Every structure is written in C-alpha cells, then in structure tokens.
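ok trying again, last paste got cut off:
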Amino acid sequence: MKDITGGVCAPKGFKAGGIWCGIKAGSKKRDLGLIYSEKICTAAAMFTTNKVQAASVLVSREHLSNGKLHAIIANSGNANACTGEQGLAVARRMAELAADEFAIGVKEVAVASTGVIGVPLPIAAIENSIAALANSLRGDEAGHAAALEAIMTTDIRKKEAAIEIDIDGKDGAASAKVRIGAMTKGSGMIHPNMATMLCFITTDAAISREMLEISLQYAVRRSFNRLTVDGDTSTNDTVIIMANGEAGNPLISAADDNQKIFAEALTQVCIKLTKAMARDGEGASKLVTVTVNGASDEKTAEALAKSVASSSLVKTACFGADANWGRVLCALGYAGVDFDPGKTQVRFKSRSGEIEVCRNGASVPFSEQDAKRILSEEEIEILADIGDGSGSGALTGSATVWGCDLTYDYVKINGDYRS
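nice, full thing came through this time. structure:
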C-alpha cells in the first residue's frame, strides 16, 4: 500500500472541478463541485441514520438503487434539508442539470448538499453556473482541490487521501495497480452513526456491486462510525464510492484475498480521513484517540471507547491538559455494556511519553507535571485496558475511536452559525 497524490483524481478515468456560484450570500468561496467519470461506474453508498433526512439524501438513495453512477454534484452553503417538496424538486433539478450537461441518465447522478438547514436552496445559482462547472473539470490535483474546496463549510483543514495497491492477477496474469482516492468535509455536527460528513471516494478497481458494498460497509464501521466531535448526527451524511474498472484488474466478485486487500486499503483511507475530521473538529485544539483493549468482543470495546470519546467532561479535561482519569472511568461506566471496573487500567499517551494513572479501578501515584506535559500535545491517546487489570489484554476485544477536545471556540462557531 503506497500513499500517492491526486485525491479523487488519482484513480484512472476520473475528473473533478469546483466553482463559486453564489449559493450563500456574502461568500466568495467555491460552493459547487462535481466528480465525473466518462465510463459508468459501479457505485455504493451509506447515508445518515437521522430520521430527518435532506433532499439530497433522499434523491441519492433513489438514484443509487441500481448501483450505477457517472457523476456526483455537490454544493456547500445550504443543506437543502427540511425544505419539503420544494427541496426535493431542487435536488432532482441538480441531478438533471448535470445529466443534461454530460448527456447521461439523470439517475446516474448522485446529489449531495451541506450547510444551513431549513433554508431553500437557490437553484437559479446552480442553473446559471452548470456550464462553468463542467468546464472546470480536470483530471489532476487541481481538479480535486477545487472540488474539495466546494464542499467545505466550517472546515479549516483539507481532508483528502489517495493510495495505490496491488491486486493479484489470475491464472498467471500480472498483478494490477489499483488506486483509491477520496475527499471529505466534516468539522461539526459529528457523531456516529455515521459521522456528519460528505465523503466521496473513487477507485479504478474492477469490482462487483456486492463486493463494493461489503467493502464500504466494512470500512465505514471501522472509521467514520467511530468518530465523534460534538454528539450531533446531521441530516445530510453521505459516503459514496464509485468504481470504474479502469485499472484492468481481474473483477473482484467474491470475498477472496483480493477483496480483503481492497477492503483493508479502503479502510485505511477512511481512517486517515476520520482522523483528519477529528483533528479539525469545530474549535478543536487536539486530536483525541481512545482505545479500549481486553473487552469480551470488538462491539463491547467500541461502545466503551465511544462513551469516553463522546464525554464532554473528558473532552474538556483534554482541552485543559488535566489528567482527570476519574472522568474516563465514569464514561466507561455508563456505556451500557458489561465490564469490571476493578480490573481496569487507564493510561495517557502522546509523543511526550506515556503515563499510567489508574490500575484496578483505583489511583496510582503519578507525576501531575508529567501528565500535563503529555496531555498538552496536539495529538493525545487515552488507553483503557479492561481485561484483568494488568494491561496484558487477556481478552482480545479491541476498538479505537477518534474525537477531539471541547473548547471555547466551539460555542463561538455554533452560536452564530447562520450568520
């Protein structure tokens, strides 16, 4: 597995672009983006679990029912959520505009939106700019960068990834180089399941719809579904992957070694984006990684880690570099799963070192000065071993969840979000 550049344009046959069309008054940043493959793609997606779903989610669910896509059109500045029948008509019109521009089927276009909820999306701005959007398409890093900027809202950092892997040939055939590229936006209203986000993934792998769906679900469960910033799950969460088969690898059509290689590579891409979103949480100053080991199974470990990462008191302690390990134990205790607090060990870790603060559910002597130095880094880890209290991990259930600290700036950002 090798990291490469190019984002969604790194795989063969994909182009991307983005422009400013004036969706949000007073803003001059790019707000309309497009990802396009001339060859029709096998596609899979996952969407928000919120009962309130944006028009783009409803329309994209419908369009992806046959597992085929040519393009994704996306806007920022307006979520087109809670906008009734008018919103649905606008989302369908966005797909129609892209379909007409490229002479493809309207159901071969997915739609995504992000921004303020409950405000009508000014479709005229998109209608007047669709030709310019099409003309902005490029199959290089610049095209990817323009499309990525077009979906960012309160994001400060760009979140992108691309990798190259080898997929074995069959019957003596040479292996093929397969690429996966991705971009995501997400900074606030982030909580499992899924985290609040738009994520678009491209690959030139030849893979069946069933195996693509299985691979995406596997990756999302171990990445975006283990991300929390503020406990809010949005109305617009969308993850879409498009595979055009241009790599020329033997078709991945069964759960064989090649499918496992592809799924693991996709997972690593998604984890990289997950960590980037956690680090860029609204107002955040630190990336907080919580790992639970020694649980009875992975599901139990995940529930415990999510509880710690989601705790406002844990998050504020991380902001203040306060080794308040009692808050960690408290959060483990209300996770709703069974474990023995009397056999629990807690450690804090960063590039400045590692320190044990709790053993067998009770305090151990430690240096507050060393703990503060460790917790003052921009990336910190909370490690909880719940097996037998020794940290040996007698039981093998393990999970990692990513989050961030909670700062004063989070309130500032969200106190006047609409303005």
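cool. The domain at 287-415 is CATH 3.10.20.340 (Ubiquitin-like (UB roll)). The chain has a mean pLDDT of 91.
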